[in-house]
Amino acid sequence: MKKIRSGKVREIYEVSDSQLVIVTTDRISAFDVILSKPVEGKGKVLNAVSTFWFDYTRDIVPNHVLSTDLRDMPEFFHKEEFEGRTMLVKRLSILPFECIVRGYVFGNMWEAYTKGQPFCGQMIEGDYQLAEKLGAPIFTPSTKADEGHDVYISYQDMAGQLGASLADKIRDISMKLYNTCYEYAYRKGIIIADTKFEFGLDSQGALVLADEIFTPDSSRFWNLADYRVGVSPKSYDKQFVRDWLQDNKLDGEMRFGGVPDEVLRKTSEIYAECLRRLRDA
């Protein structure tokens, strides 16, 4: 099989002019560096979470998923190593933007807010504490860079590149996806503080949701039971690894090759717990 891309987490194979296969590995990156050791089962969790949400939101927007059954894919993928982590998808023309929706004042938005600076071209009005829920979610797009860091832009910049009609549609769908899935996750005891989407156009020019959706890698998930305004919440994601790297520097340098197995095992448990809670009846 022809592999056309190897990302930080995903391997992408070309099946035909209209189809791709995406394999989600157990690799984990932190601060834009892939760690030397994987997180066992992480890829299967990410694949399962995305599959769950793609199915849950299919009435809001079409998505790129064709099948998660290996029998629908070329024989190359009929192996145990691909089970549970592989997806056959439509081949799309991916739009070069991360479509981010934020429901809480945190991260880069919090930094801009505390400095009295606009974020993605808009001022955050109101009196907020760290990790406090916004009066209403906001759309904060960024560029999608193949190399280096994405760059936050204003909605007006995005509309200037895509055209107002398509940009409006993407923004409105992103907001509906966030609000719908936020309510579901909240009932399961999980707060979706923010998330990002990627969209593409199919061969007929129709807008299609792509990549992953509402996973611990693409979203900030907090435990509702532990959440407190003014306190940095614990996340259902790789923050556990990031914290270890920050707290265990050697001569000021992060030890990307020195993360203990116990930290990786705990991270695996955090990912699995997220999936279990979302799928609990």
Task: Spell out the blueprint of helices and strands.
Layout: E1 2-6, E2 10-14, E3 19-24, E4 29-30, E5 33-34, H1 42-56, E6 65-67, E7 86-90, E8 93-94, E9 97-104, H2 107-114, E10 133-139, E11 142-143, H3 155-162, H4 164-187, E12 190-201, E13 207-210, E14 219-223, H5 239-247, H6 261-279
Antiparallel strand pairs: 1-2, 2-3, 3-7, 4-5, 6-7, 8-12, 9-10, 9-11, 9-12, 12-13, 12-14
Describe this structure in words.
By secondary structure, the chain is an alpha+beta fold. Helix content is 30%, strand content 24%. It contains six helices and 14 strands. It has helices at 42-56, 107-114, 155-162, 164-187, 239-247, 261-279; strands at 2-6, 10-14, 19-24, 29-30, 33-34, 65-67, 86-90, 93-94, 97-104, 133-139, 142-143, 190-201, 207-210, 219-223. Strands 8, 9, 10, 11, 12, 13 and 14 form a seven-stranded antiparallel sheet that branches. Strands 1-2-3-7-6 form a five-stranded antiparallel sheet. A two-stranded antiparallel sheet has the order 4-5. Helix 1 (42-56) packs parallel to helix 6 and helix 3 (155-162) packs across helix 4. The N and C termini lie far apart (39 Å). The mean pLDDT is 95.
